[in-house]
Each structure stands twice: as structure tokens, then as C-alpha cells.
Fold:
Amino acid sequence: MNYFKKILVFAKPYKTYAVLNIIANILYALFSTLAMVSLFPMLKVLFGEDEPLYEKPVYDGLSKKYIEDYLNFFITQKAEEGATDVLMYMVALVIGMFLLKNFFNYLAMFFITFLRNGVLKDVRNAMFRKTLSLPLSHYSEKRKGDTLARITSDVLEVQHSFLSILELVVREPLTIIFTIGAMVFISWELTLFVFIFIPISGYIISLIGKSLKKKSDKVQQEQGYFLSILEESLSGLKIIKGFNAEKVFTRKFEESTNNFYDFSNKLLNRQNLASPTSEFLGIGVIAILLWYGGRLVLIDGSLEASMFITYMGLSYQILTPAKAISKASYGVKKGNAAAERILEILETESNIQDAPNAVEKKDFTSAIEIKNLSFKYEADYVLKNFSVKVPKGTSLALVGQSGSGKSTIANLITRFYETNEGSIEIDGVDIRKKKKKSLRGLMGLVTQESILFNDSIRENLKIGKEDATEEELINALKIANAYDFVMQLPKGLDTNVGDSGGKLSGGQKQRISIARAVLKNPPIMILDEATSALDTESERLVQEALENMMKNRTSIVIAHRLSTIQKADQIAVMHQGEIVEIGTHEELMQLGKAYYKLVEMQSFE
Structure:
């Protein structure tokens, strides 16, 4: 139940609806009992059990005898007007009670709807915010499909199981309490006899639900796995088709859905056992009641037939809320697993947090300085004792073989990952002492893979600056060499780029990415192999765009193609996480060492 309590925190903004639901449920439970009790005077009339009472009984407390005498007096009075009138009064009373019962039932469901859907919305929003706030390292270990499953199906499971209980917490227990009160009022001996058997029934029902949480957890984990396969298959569809690997991925997906099928069957079959078991045990109690109550009516004569029939109706009325509570208890077991998976995300602490005294700095005045930086993703260091200074307005190019640590530098400067040893300073202040939003506000990022979203070019650009004017958008496109091709598109800036920018070529996507960075107009630009995946013509256009963008900006350029960084103020050649030489293009060529060899190798490509 701890998970349930944590989820209920999200219900606080909707407490007004909860209070109204409770009031409506109290009235529902009351009229539900009264609706059944209202049958009693009608049965007394039909059975003609009492002698007519012509004198109004003297009130001596709300006793069983006083109520029976008063009903007898009321019926006698109406009987003088005719037997049909008495029946009409009784029928009207019964209909009125059932009408009020169902009216308050509707009101209770009406109010709980706002609470349930509100909690559902807020949990999803909180999970999405948390998903965006967690560091990249978190997702290098997790499957995306599992996160999708938690935000979609697990949240729905919580709504269907946990939040369904909110409907039952007040209504069903109160219905049982009011009904038991009426039953005790009619015959405490019979009620005591019945309640000897109820704990036995409850114990048998509880045995069924013990393994539900474990089985439910397997179902949800498997759902996360096949959603991961689906997400990866859609992302890599070109490779799957190109390598005729449809069978491989189909087999993986079908294996997962078969497991899901097996786990779901076991879970649902166990869950489906709840209702028939509780009903059968309930009928068993009713059968015992018939035997014992029948003796009181027929042999002992201590209970009237009309009372006994009303009592039987009340005892059967307990079965419905008892079944609902039984079913809800299984729902808790199932929902517990879903809530645990949701809270696992919500309670995950990011290892990259703003320091308590973090500063907000919106300008860049002197230099970026990396001091004795060492970093490892897992066991082995990918950067070792790395130091370099990049004065404002200059450019640093990082070159070297794949795996030498170039992209890691970009990840650390933007604080996507936290440094292990050493420091990175901007204007003499360690970036760990700056607010993350403030730090990233100083930087523009263009990556090797052009990340565009399934929206218009305009909206993709506005990620760089949400309130950008039309003039600013066009100017950014011109600097990025993208204006001409964008204007030739059917809807210009309002053209949809498709999923991941699939309607554009590689060069076009990259120039839109550059325009987005230009629109942000940051003082520091980080370019992570921005031209490595392009053809020669696209590379020339993108390179011109990059040179336009880098004017009067401090730039850190990670490059694979050395022809693109010859104008850099500093070129650092990296090998196995260390700088082996640093200087301008001319200086490094004269040394004739590592950089010279890299240039020579590429000149033959």
C-alpha cells in the first residue's frame, strides 16, 4: 500500500471532487440500505402478519418494537382508504428509495471521474518532465520501449486498479456497514451466526491474490520489452530491409508477444477466479442463513416471515460490495507492480544536479578552460589528464581516431555527463557551479546526426528561439545556406519535415540544424562531426554555413574530415583520451607527426 499512498499525493489538487464523491457515496450507501428495508412494510401488508393498530404508539425511543408498531399504525390508517392505496404508497416508497440510491450513485461516479482523469494526467506529466530531466547516461542503460510502457500502459493500469479503489473505499464499506446495521436491528442472533462464516470466506479469497503482483510485474516488463523491439525496428527499418533481417526481428517480437500472452493468461485467469469464488462463498453463507433463519421462522417462531425475507434481501445485498472489494484487492496487487515501475522513474535521482549555490551567468567574456580532465563511462578512462584553453572568439578543433574521446569532450562541456576528475571552467567559474539552464543557454549544438522533429521547419527552428520573428528565421536560414531550398518547398517554412526529418536530404537536414543553432545566437558553438555524413556538394554548402555561423563566436569543432578544420585557431590531435599534439594547421603539418599522417591518409581517400 506504500505505492498507493505515494500515487495518492497526485490527488491533492482534486480533493474537492474527492469530498463530493465521499458525500455522494455516503448517501448512496444509506439509500441502498433503505431501498431494501422499504420492502419490509409492503411484505407485512401482503402477508397480513399484524393485527390492525388504530392507536398511535407512544414514542419510547427508536426501538425495533416502536418502528414496527408505527408502521402497523400507518398501514392501518391507509388501509381504511383502501388496500390498493396502501400498496400504491408502499410501491411509491420503494421506487423513491431506489431512485435516490441510483441518483447518488451517478453523482459519486461523476465526481470521481474528474479525480481519476486528473491524477492520470498529472502522473503522465510528471513522468514526462522527469524523463526529460534525467541525464543521458540513464538512457544508455535503459530501453526506450520500457519507458514508453511505463508512461502509457502502466499509468493506465494504475488508473484501472488503484484509482478504481477510490470509488470503493467509501461506498462499498459503508453499504456493508449500513446493511449490517439493519440486519442486526432485525435479528442480532441471525447476524452473529452469519458472521462466524464470513472471516473463513475472506481468508480463502485472500489466498488467491497473493501471487498477482509478481505475475503482473512480469506482464508489464514483457510489454516494455516488445515496445522496445517495435521502437528499434521502426527506427532501423532501412537496415532491417537492406539486410533482409525481417525474419530475425519478427522472431524476436513474436517471442516477446508469446511470453506476454502466457503471462497475461496466467494473470487474468487468477484474477478471473476472484469473482466466482467470492460469489460461491457468498451463496454458501446465504445457504447457511436460509437453514438457520428458516428454523427461527418455522420452528422457533421468533422471527416473522416478512422480516426474514427482508433480512435475506439485505444479506444478499452485501454480496455485491463484498465482491467489489474482493476484486479491488486483486486490483491493488496488480496495480502495485505498475505503481512500483512508475515510481521507479519518478523517484530516480539525477546524478547531474544544480549546486545549492549555483550561479546564473548569461554572458561569456573571456575563455573556456579545461584543466586536468579525466573521465570514464564505465571501467576504463576515455579521457586522461586533458587540458586546453579556448579564448573567446577563437576556435578549437579536436581530431583523432574514433574512440579517442572527442565527442566525450562535447558531452562534458554541455554537462550531459559529470566529470570524474579535473574541471571545466567558463570565465574562471567551474561549470558545476553554474545552473544547467544558464550553462546550456550559452551554447549552440550541431551534432553529426541531424535531429529534427515531426513538425514544420518553422517549429523546428523555433526550438532555438521560441519567440523568433519572421525576419530572424529568414536571416538564420540565409546564414545556414538553407534559405533557397526552404523557399522552394511547397509550403516554405510551414512544410512538415516528416518523422526525424525524413522528407529532407542529409545536407538539408544538417543546414536546418545549423539554422536552429544560429537562431539561438549563442556565444559558444559546439559542432560534433557536423559534416562527416554528407556528400561533397552538401559538405561544401554546410561548411560555408558553419564558417558563417562561427564568425565572432567561440567554437569547439569535433571533426572527422580534416579539410573542414584547417582554418581553426587551434587543432588538438587526440589519441586514447590524451592530446598528443596541438597547434595550427601549418604548425602541425611542419611537425610531420600524428596530424600530418592523418592528413596524408585522408588525401588518399
Summary: The chain has a mean pLDDT of 78.
